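Reviewer has doubts. Consider these tokens.
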Amino acid sequence: MINKRRPTAVLIGLLAATVLTGPAPALADEEPPAEPPKVELVLDVSGSMRARDIDGRSRISVAQQAFNEVVDALPEETQLGIRVLGATYRGKDKKQGCLDTQQIVPVGPVDRVQAKAAVATLRPTGFTPVGLALRSAAQDLGTGATARRIVLITDGEDTCAPPDPCEVARELAAQGTKLVVDTLGLAPDEKVRRQLLCIAGATGGTYTAAQSADELSGRIKQLVDRANETYTAAPTVVGGTAECANAPLLAPGVYSDREAFSEHRWYRVPVRPGQELRASVSLALDRPVNPDHGVLLRATAADGRELVRGVDAGSGRTDVVSAGLRWSATEDGAPPTPGVTPVPATTVCLVVSNSFAPRPGTRATPGMPVELTVDVVASSPAPAAPDLGRGWVLLALLTLAGLLTGLVAGLLTRWWVATWREN
């Protein structure tokens, strides 16, 4: 006979467990979704690309060669798109010329012959609407759970602002999407360099000055390959609070947030006895800040007592600062006993603080990008070490070894002296 009371009892038990343990933590994506890496190359085809100053060749011909080499070497799993700017309008109407951007190869599996044919027909023509092209490229790549990459190749400063390309990059970063813009400069111009640095810095990308055909093609290949290497699920967007009491409850995963200058943002993580909390934070410096400042990650108890203070975890990059910490819920690190009702979890408060200050003229909003990684694992006790305070046997052995060593050394010395006198 089927027991009809069992489902009701199970449901009541689950509801009771939910009430006792509190609200469920926010969950980050557990597994990367089955989406291919996506990259869009954005090429400046404005009139200045006619200049013949790269290995005696025009900038556009060098870029076309680099694109062909990249298309030939493209990994099968990578979806690639190509967008151009300043490629079609030959007139002098700036309003019309600043709308001149087109996607000539849609993002997807690449038809190599079609892609190379589309690039081969490009001729330097018009204005330089970099900001509009970046915004359009982000739309080309669409939304999704995986990292996406834009590689911008240009030889000049935007001539069409607004929209200002640096502001567009910040706008894209503020949307919480995992979008990285890498920039390649083809002209040794300081204004261009500053603008491309700003675009890359706002999204966690890189800037490179390419002064030869080999440098350009090699760098583009490297960035396309990096899209495969950094093919991960986008962090879950979460909003830290000004105090621990009402902070979001986090499960193991990767989270993204925004933090204003000199701000403290709080999060909560449940940790049971026998478990160890491991957390790290990275803060992207997407705008000019005063030097000699940093980011601090701390774990505190709910009553404000500091449990552990994180240590710097620099990666050598100057546009990202990081810190990490570890904390165990028990000293002995013993795992929970099977079959025994688990002890209620301790709520650990994580606080991310930064001491950065903006330089004059730097915008304070939106806040700087923060990526927080949280993991809770079975704690492992520290390796045991000899304890001379309690190890009398070890102490006696060491004493005996010292006496024997002294005795042997004395006998050898006496033998050597006697032998020397006889000779």
Q: What stands out?
A: Residues 38-229 form a domain with the Rossmann fold fold (CATH 3.40.50.410).
